[in-house]
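RRM domain-containing protein, pasting as requested.
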Amino acid sequence: MQMWTKYKLFVGNLSWTVTSESLAGAFRECGDVVGARVVFDGDTGKSRGYGFVCYSSQAEMETALQSLDGFELEGRAIRVNLAQGKKY
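Structure tokens follow.
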């Protein structure tokens, strides 16, 4: 599945309880989130502990990268980095 824009962030160390909706909600504090997805294991249906968030602009993406790396979301300090590669 490819994401919606080129302004993509990788979000790691997610709590197993984080949903795509709660991930988007946390990242909306930094701008217009055009997509958010937590990755789930196809066999077990459980979270793999990471996801992706897309913004409508580079400035919003950079704000989130600086502001939310280390932010505590549902009990865990998340890691935020620029998404690498083409497959999401």
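Note for the archive: The chain has a mean pLDDT of 92.
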